[in-house]
Amino acid sequence: MTNSTTRKGQPLLKSTLAELYGVTVHTLLRWMKRIPNLTLDKSKLLTPAQVEKVVAHLGAPDGWE
């Protein structure tokens, strides 16, 4: 798990976001597929806009600032 806080408006690796939520990347991807108007690609990096949509839909994970 990451020790530092993650700030809004930054790109984030899918694996880092999964760690913050305490789930595997596979589980996070399943959750993200259900988010309306969220475009995903094969990149490991999520854009700030994608991160904001995920957090808005799933709620802020622990360590989110």
How is this structure best described in words?
The chain has about 60 residues and is mainly alpha-helical. It has one domain (about 15-60). The protein is built from three helices and two strands, in the order βααβα. Strands 1-2 form a two-stranded antiparallel ribbon. The longest helix has 11 residues, at about 50-60. The model has no long low-confidence stretch (mean pLDDT about 90).
- Helix count, per DSSP? 3
The average pLDDT value, as a whole number, equals 89
Major sheet strand order: 1-2
Tell me the number of structural domains.
1
Radius of gyration: 11 Å
The tally of beta strands, per DSSP, is: 2
> Which parts are unreliable, with pLDDT below 50 for 5 consecutive residues or more?
none
How much β-strand is present in the residues? 5-15%
Structural class given helices, strands, pairing? mainly alpha
Order of helices and strands: EHHEH
Biggest sheet: strands, sense, closure? Answer: 2 strands, antiparallel
